Every structure is written in C-alpha cells, then in structure tokens.
C-alpha cells in the first residue's frame, strides 16, 4: 500500500486504511449558474487537502483568484445547480463546508459521518450525498436546510459517489468490499449491489445515464456498468492505479486519472479501449472535464499543480500552480455568452427645393444591451434607380444598397448614420426604403427588431411627405 499523503504535524489515522495504492476516490460534478465574480469561463473550486482551503480558479485565465478557508483536510467538492452553493467534504473533521459561490464565503458547516470523502449533488440541487469512507454509510444533506436528513448503510469504506442525470439513482463505490451500492434516491435505500474489481474508487455516470464507469484502484482496470440492469458489461484494462474518472460532455470519451503512473488514460467509450495516454503532473488523483468540454483538468496531489488538457489533441496545454495538495474539484457553469440587442431605426426627412431636392435618411443602431456592441453592420435598400450621396463616415454605397458599419455602441446608447437620396422629376408615388442589421458582435438575441422601413409619398418633386 502506498503511504497516504502527509504534511507536518498532522496525522491521518483513517486515511492510510482507506486508501488503496495511496489514492482517494472523488467523482461527481454538477454545474450551476456562474457566480457574480466569474470571468469569461467557468470557475473551478479545488479542495486543497494539505491546506484546509478551497482555491477558486478562473478557467479563462488559468489563475487562482480566491482562497477560502474550510475544515480540516478538504477532499471532495460538488456544486449545487441553481443554488450558488459548493459542498466540500472535510476528511479529518467529519463535516461538510457549504460555500456561497456568489460571495466565496462559508455559510454553513454540516456534521456528517466518519472521514467524508466524496460528495455529489442531485440535478435538482435539493440533496447532497456524502460518502463516509471511515465507516459504512452515506449521509444525505437537505440543501435547503443544510442538515442531514438520512443516513444510508452501504458497503465498507464508501469512496466515490455519482448521481444519474435523472436524479433517480446514486452509485457508491465501496472500496474495501469490491462492490458498488446503487441507491434509490426516492427512498434513500440500497436497490442493488454490484460486484466490481479490486478496491473500487472513482465513479462517473455518462451524460446519457446509460453507463457508469468505476475505477478499480487495485485492479488496474475500469468496470463498465449498465445502469438499466446494474451489471458489469465490460472491464477496460488501464494499468497503474486508476483513481478517478470523468466523461467529456459528449460522452464519447472517458478520462481516467492514474496516480501510480502519473498520467491520464483516455478511453474511447464506443470501443471501450484506451486510445491515448497523457503525461501530467506528479500523483494525479482527480480528473474532471469543464462544462463546455473545452478542457480536462487533472489534480496532481504530489506537486501541487493542476494540468489542463486539450481533449482535441490530448496534450497538456497549461499547468496551474498555487495549490497545497489539490484533490477534488468542481466547476460552475460558464457565464452566459455576452449579448447585445440592436434595434434598427430608419427615418427620412425631405429637403425640397427647385434646384436640388433630396431626402435625408437617418439609419440608427440602438443598443438595448445588456453588453456593449463591439461592432455592427446595417444595410439600407433604396428604391430602384435611387442613389445615395453625402454618406456619413463608415457608410458605403453600391447600386441601391447602402452599407454602414458602427464602432462600439455601449448599452442603452444609439449611433445614427445619415445619407441623402436626390429626387428626380420622375419620383412620384410611394418611395420606400428598408434597413436591417446584417452583422453584429456579440450575439443579438432579438431578431424581431433587426429591420425597419420608411415610406415617403411624392406628389411632385417639390411636394414630398414622410412619416
């Protein structure tokens, strides 16, 4: 057995007996709306086992932006959807710290069972399931009251826990009796017990909810479970000491943290074979994919870093430092993409004289927000035979089309552009011009206000009325 993680002046009386190959199991990541301080990407909350803290990582800049003090030896992290709460297991003090991800403050501490290791939150966010690895139970926390409302007997030394997308079942790995307990979350009872490989640790459910992958810490393999029949349908050899597993959002690949080999194995879920091996840092104990699928993160306990992998190339593209024994991690959802709703307005005003009569058109882009419109293009279509003159800067003309580009427009601001259309002796009856937004950045969420038109009426060259 590999020695447990250590640090000065602190003992781990239970950790050694619970760790097979020196590895703790962690699974279960649920997304929620991004906190107010988040930047362009989702935030990652990382438990520092050696630091009694949780680090907040801005995944857009790959930097640690905050450090939150929690309980002794934090290990597992899960985030409750729509509740702006992170749940962190404190291994050495039998508690779970509740963090408000909007303020990054600890708002509650919930007593649970012995040596809580991993935690997962139901898709509804109403309950958190905590694997108490120092015994044989799972604690169920009501997230509305942050109290334990049920304690479920399972196998010996429960490690990993993952919940199906429907929320109907939770899968718990029992490290010391080589099994997985399937929990009915409606009744909080064990509905099935599945024999797996030696020392099961991590568990993850694929996005469709049809399969559960279980890392067998001492079996050098991953067991594939059919969640419909609760049977093992395949065993994937991975070598080393597989400790944690996660799926990409598409479900096409599973990533396995191999602490013993210092790498991450990539499994093609269609063929259930290892198709790539990615060297990472020293002692990878946890692996998670960010909600967008743009990156996969591996927590390297032994060298206090996190490796960031590109799933497109299966290579490490960044290494983030500043941790103290990084272990479990969970992500908030990416902030909503910036949007700028542009409303198009087109007006006309006649300037009538015997010499040079014309209509002056004003093409206005009004940004109703919420973000700044960094660029925009509006086009106007003129009546057949018409031509535009005296165009504002940024406007060009080709035939009967006027194209105007706009510099950044702040939210709740407008930018007008003007041009003239000379009138001729043949201009009689309705004179209609149309306009529309043809491009803008960022996304325009409301296409219904992207067009405008104006119709003037010409009785004669010197008698023209416009609305």
Automatic annotation (TrEMBL):
Pfam families: DUF11, Lactonase
Membrane-crossing residue ranges in chain numbering: none
All copies of domain DUF11, residue ranges: 341-455
UniProt entry tagged with the keyword Signal: yes
Keyword Coiled coil among record annotations: no
Annotated SUPFAM superfamilies: Nitrous oxide reductase, N-terminal domain
Signal peptide (from-to): 1-38
PANTHER family listed in its UniProt record: DIHYDRO-HEME D1 DEHYDROGENASE, PROTEIN NIRF
Matches recorded under NCBIfam families: beta_rpt_yvtn
Protein name, UniProt field: YncE family protein
Organism: Streptomyces atriruber
Lineage: Bacteria, Bacillati, Actinomycetota, Actinomycetes, Kitasatosporales
């Amino acid at each position: 057995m590999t020695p447990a993680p250590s640090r000065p002046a602190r003992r781990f009386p239970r950790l050694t007996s619970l760790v097979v190959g020196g590895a703790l199991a962690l699974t279960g990541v649920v997304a929620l709306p991004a906190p107010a301080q988040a930047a362009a990407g989702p935030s990652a909350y990382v438990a520092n086992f050696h630091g009694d803290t949780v680090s907040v990582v801005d995944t857009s800049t790959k930097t640690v932006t905050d450090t939150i003090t929690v309980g002794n030896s934090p290990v597992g992290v899960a985030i409750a959807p729509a509740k702006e709460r992170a749940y962190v297991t404190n291994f050495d003090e039998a508690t779970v710290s509740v963090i408000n991800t909007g303020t990054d403050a600890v708002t509650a501490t919930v007593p649970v069972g012995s040596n809580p290791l991993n935690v997962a939150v139901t898709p509804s966010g109403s309950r958190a399931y905590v694997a108490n690895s120092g015994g044989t139970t799972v604690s169920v926390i009501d997230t509305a009251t942050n109290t334990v409302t049920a304690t479920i007997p399972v196998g010996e030394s429960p490690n990993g826990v993952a919940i199906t997308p429907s929320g109907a079942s939770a899968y718990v790995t029992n490290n010391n009796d080589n099994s997985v307990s399937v929990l009915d979350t409606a009744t909080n009872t064990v509905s099935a017990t599945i024999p797996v490989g030696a020392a099961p640790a991590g568990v993850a459910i694929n996005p469709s909810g049809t399969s559960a992958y279980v890392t067998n810490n001492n079996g050098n393999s991953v067991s594939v479970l059919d969640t419909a029949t609760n049977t093992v349908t395949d065993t994937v050899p991975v070598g080393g000491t597989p400790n944690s597993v996660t799926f990409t959002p598409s479900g096409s690949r599973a990533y396995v943290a191999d602490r013993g080999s210092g790498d991450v194995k990539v499994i093609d879920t269609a063929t259930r074979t290892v198709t790539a091996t990615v060297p990472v840092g020293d002692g990878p104990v946890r692996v998670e994919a960010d909600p967008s699928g743009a990156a996969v993160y591996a927590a390297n306990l032994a060298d206090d870093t996190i490796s960031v992998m590109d799933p497109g190339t299966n290579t490490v593209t960044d290494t983030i430092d500043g941790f103290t024994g990084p272990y479990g991690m969970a992500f908030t959802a990416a902030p909503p993409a910036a949007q700028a709703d542009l409303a198009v307005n087109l007006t006309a005003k006649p300037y009538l004289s015997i010499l040079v009569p014309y209509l002056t058109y004003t093409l206005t882009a009004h940004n109703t927000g919420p973000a700044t419109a960094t660029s925009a293009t509006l086009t106007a279509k003129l009546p057949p035979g018409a031509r535009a003159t005296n165009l504002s800067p940024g406007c060009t003309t080709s035939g009967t089309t006027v194209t105007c580009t706009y510099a950044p427009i702040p939210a709740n601001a407008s930018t007008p552009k003007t041009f003239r259309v000379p009138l001729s002796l043949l201009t009689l009856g309705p004179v209609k011009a149309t306009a529309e937004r043809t491009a803008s950045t960022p996304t325009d969420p409301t296409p219904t206000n992207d067009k405008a038109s104006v119709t003037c009426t010409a009785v004669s060259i010197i008698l023209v009325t416009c609305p």
